[in-house]
Amino acid sequence: MHVDGPLPAAGADGAFAGVPAFVKDNVDYRGLPTGHGSAAFTPRPARRHAPFTRQFLSSGVTVLGKTRMPEFGFSPTTEYEGAEPVRNPWHTGCSAGGSSGGSAALVAAGAVPVAHANDGAGSIRIPAAVCGLVGLKPTRGRVVLNAQGRQLPIDLVSDGVVTRSVRDTAAFLAAAERYWRNPALPPLGLVEGPSERRLRIGFLVDSPNGVAADSATRAAVMETVAVLQRLGHTVEPVEIRLDPRFTADFLTYWGMLSFLIGVTGRTLGSGFDRRRMDGLSRGLRESYVREWPRTPGVLRRLKRTKVAYAAAFRGLDLVLTPVLAHTTPPIGHLSPEVPYRLLIERILAYVAFTPLNNVVGTPPCRCPRRAPRRRAARRRHVLRPPRRRTHPPRDRLRPGGGVPLPAHPGPGSRRTGMTGAGPGRGVSSGSMGDERGHSGRRAERNGRRGAAADRVSAARAQRRQGGGEVGLTTRDTWQRVLEQAVSEGADARKGGEDEDVYYLELSAVTFVDVAGAGELAIAAQRLPDGHRFVLHRPPPTLRRALDMFWPGLPAIEVSMS
Question: Omega into 165 within 30° of 0, i.e. cis?
Answer without folding.
Answer: no
